[in-house]
Amino acid sequence: MKSVFLFAASLLAAASAWAGPKVELVTTLGTLEVELNEQAAPATVANFLRYVDDGSYEGSIFHRLIPGFVVQGGGFDSAFTPLPTYSPVVNESNNGLKNTAGSIAMARTQDPNSATRQFYINFSDNNSLNGGRNSGYTVFGQVTAGQEVLEKIANVPTGMNLTLRARDVPKQNIILERVRRLEPEVATPNDPTPQDSDTPVERDPLKP
């Protein structure tokens, strides 16, 4: 699948570029980690973390899945009942972040400022979602671990769902079992620091 190769390259390139809050998404198919860019999308990140911290993402599902495009979730429980929302968040799509493979962004209606709790993860570079000015879809983070899990998700069969009256709904529930902030790593006394040596420390780009 084309999206697999795009995601692998995007993951490596983006992981070392951001240094923001990290969130763990434990699904029934495995664990994803996302790093949020609160400098580029402060309102959107604060909005997303509000749902993370209140625990309401736990038990929600990915209800829309289009291989090579996106997987979308966070808005319904396993019975396809809509979950409560806070007030919509202002659109921040004009922040320089693009809908590239592995990025996480907010779903919304035709109203640019209508995003609440539903988010999606791009399987590939989706330039059509970027838009101009503030008419695009706000990217606010990047998957930094779990490429193999996204591949599993992309391969789940989909079909028509009469409850949602929608196509492209996974035939098996992909449930967010646990969603939590990850604590930042704290250096120990044995960790090398710039003060220990004149030689710059080279970090693994896949680690925080």
Automatic annotation (TrEMBL):
GO terms for biological process: protein folding. Residues 27-181 form the PPIase cyclophilin-type domain. GO terms for molecular function: peptidyl-prolyl cis-trans isomerase activity. Its EC number is 5.2.1.8. It holds the Pfam family Pro_isomerase. Residues 180-208 are annotated as: Disordered. Keywords: Isomerase, Rotamase, Signal. It catalyses: [protein]-peptidylproline (omega=180) = [protein]-peptidylproline (omega=0). InterPro entries: Cyclophilin-like_dom_sf, Cyclophilin-type_PPIase_CS, Cyclophilin-type_PPIase_dom, E_coli_cyclophilin_A-like. Residues 1-19 form the signal peptide. It comes from the Bacteria. PPIases accelerate the folding of proteins. It catalyzes the cis-trans isomerization of proline imidic peptide bonds in oligopeptides. Belongs to the cyclophilin-type PPIase family. This is Peptidyl-prolyl cis-trans isomerase. It comes from Oceanisphaera avium.
